[in-house]
Amino acid sequence: MTRRIAILAAWVSIAGLPAGSWAQTPPPEPVRAASPGKVLEVAVRVDPDGRPEYSIRRHQSLIVDWSRLGFIFADAPKFERNFTVGEASTRVFDDTWEQPWGERRYVRDHGTEMRVTLNERSGRKLDVVFRVFDDGVGFRYEFPDQASLREVNIVDELTEFAIAEPATAWWIPGGEWNRDEYLYHQTPLTEVSMVHTPITMKLASGVHVAIHEAAVVDFATVWLRRVDGQRLKTLLWPSSTGPRVSRKAPFATPWRTLKIAKDAPGIYMSDLILNLNEPNKLGDVSWVKPFKYVGIWWGMHLGQNTWNSGPKHGATTAETRRYIDFAAANGFRGVLVEGWNKGWDGDWFAKGEEFSFTEPYADFDLPALAAYARKKGVRLIGHHETGGNLANYERQLGPALDLYRKLGVDAVKTGYVADAGGLQVLGSDGRIHFEWHDGQAASRHHLLVVTEAAKRKISIDAHEPIKDTGLRRTYPNWVSREAARGMEYNAWGNPVNPPDHEVNLVFTRMLGGPMDYTPGVLSLTGAGGRRIPSTIARQLALYVVLYSPIQMAADLPENYAKFPRPFRFIKDVPTDWSDTRVLNGEVGDYVTFARKDRAGDDWYLGAITDEQPRNLRVSLGFLDEGKQYTATIYRDGPGAGFAGDPKSVVIESRPVSRNDYLTLELAPGGGQAIRIAAPGGKKAAKPRKPPETPQPGKEEFDVE
Question: Cα–chain-centroid distance for residue 685?
């Protein structure tokens, strides 16, 4: 073989071509596949050096210029050049599947699949599979079973995204200490550095593109690194033990995804990521319940209570009973209690070895409280903060989940508070290694937790988690997660979340999946009396705008007693939908959602804006023909605004039909929430008894 290569190199030199350029002949014509509606087209080829690459067009306009594919391995020659395109096949698929819960009940999966085999001159093979939809493209690599590459140890992935048009990007930095809890930057794409996904771009033509990934299983997730101009390259999250990914062939990688639409609402409405995940593997999941909850949480962020034991301990039996009573009186299914278990008294941040997940503090009677909650028609929500110590948590995972199952606790909030790179993982060598929140070790861990919880009919809401890539379709008990800068930053953050933050989240982070943002702070007051840049109407609108099948009413019970009329909307709004429409929106500026209650015919509308006041005209054409509805409107009142009077809110009712238009008047940093009740439809939830909290004095906050 060595002699043959030498002869070929000499021939290339004689022919006047540079050494190493064996295939300096025009490459064969690309293989192509178009989406069912001929909106998008993908082309795949190899360049003159045998490097595989792809491009994407939308209505014949170039969106992604020729971008390379491939891998670098730790212990084998790289997959990068000297390829030819082998067999290529296409098929069209069209299916509709039902979500057990979600933003819409039925999802259509309609696209074209193209499978391309890449043959390396050495004899190795690699398949690349593209699925082309009218609103985006997903592709992944499939490693076949081959003797020359059975143990696959990946150092890096060479996938590129060369954006063809000048673009503006909305992004947060990747590889930094605070994981993905950053405010979003808006810059030209040529100024981004290394970024988390999803990253969203608006091209010069107005087309919107969002890059992310789908179905990350036993694999590291990716950052994107700008290498030159507008060319982005994947960078797998690192591993402390060597290769960033180690797998045995055959296997498939996660999908690399591009949502592509004419505008911002179009990229949100795409079901691309869900469709690229496998169907439900859990069977009957009727036990997974969307719900709203309250909890012992916000008081800790305000500094009124502590997670650790002592005179200000929040998770006491008496305080938990008070929250259970409040939840039962106001129609909330869940009560979250943080700080109930032993381990909080030490230096737990990024350590977590002292946490017990079965032993409560002496002032917290877990069995009695679980029984009391169920008697009241309420469920405790479990809490497992790990401090990033996966090894300690996994040692206790079975007994901890068994305890919750025994007590009737059917949802658990997990937490992984540690700086990036600070997860403690037990390696195959029996030693503790420090890993990243989105690396392969974290991917394995989260799926272990979700599947073990499913065996016990328990749902998982993960905070400080691995990013969301649509696995809720395959494992529907993975109901929500954080993975972004949430409401707690409005209590103590420096800075707090500015008015454009939640609008940015809609068209970036929320493209991955549900977020447990914890809205509903009607007091609009953080720690030390700091002012939260919002309005009451905006806090209500967030329940419609920021989707999660579990939604917290985050404020203190005594604060809700001060605002009973706006609180009515929080009690009424569902968390499970049969239909969702994005009526308008621009990234970082404003957005309006309409969602239909899965349990009835009522619709809910939510709109928010950035620091600018806006008047948004929306059609109610999504309502049923021939029906007269009643709209209860919660809007910013006179003088309202994040810098004005944040508590000024007008609550009014009017009849509406599908022929009507509404003008939504949004104050700076404000919003609007509307319940559109169908005639004879499901009635608003009524409390079984008044809130057991002090009533306010003479504070006035709404205008009739």
Answer: 29
Helix (H, G, I), strand (E, B) or coil at 627: coil
CA atoms within 13 A on the CB side of 112: 19
* Element at 318 (helix H, strand E): helix 317-330
| Residue appearing with tokens 């499901």 | 682
**Residue-wise pLDDT tens digits, 235-275:** 999 999 999 999 999 999 999 999 999 999 999 999 999 99
Question: By CB neighbour count within 10 A (0-12 exposed, 13-18 middle, 19+ buried), where does 663 fall?
Answer: exposed
pLDDT tens-digit series, residues 413-460: 999 999 999 999 999 999 999 999 999 999 999 999 999 999 999 999
Sign of the dihedral defined by the CA atoms of residues 671, 568, 379, 385, in that order: positive
Q: Are 334 and 377 in contact (CB under 8 A)?
A: no
Amino acid letter at 396?
Q
Question: Which residues are registered as beta bridge partners of 615?
Answer: 665
pTM here is 0.93
- The residue type found at 338 is E
- Show Cβ contacts of residue 228 under 8 Å, excluding neighbours closer than 6 positions: none
In the block, residue with structure tokens 């948590």: 393
Which residues carry out catalysis?
Answer: 488
- DSSP H or E segment with residue 275: helix 272-275
Nearest-5° Cα angle at 463, 462 to 465: 75
Task: Calculate the alpha carbon distances from 613 to 185, 635, 641, 666 in Å.
Answer: 21, 13, 8, 5
Distance CA 50, CA 118 (A): 10
Indicate the SS3 state at residue 489: helix
Question: Residue 480's Cα: distance from chain center in Å?
Answer: 8
Question: Between β-strands 160-163 and 194-195, what pairing exists: parallel, antiparallel or unpaired?
Answer: unpaired
* Strand-strand pairing, 185-188 and 167-171: antiparallel
Q: Are strands 379-385 and 661-666 parallel, antiparallel or unpaired?
A: unpaired
The enclosing H or E element of 118 equals strand 106-120
Sign of the Cα torsion 480, 196, 199, 57 reads negative
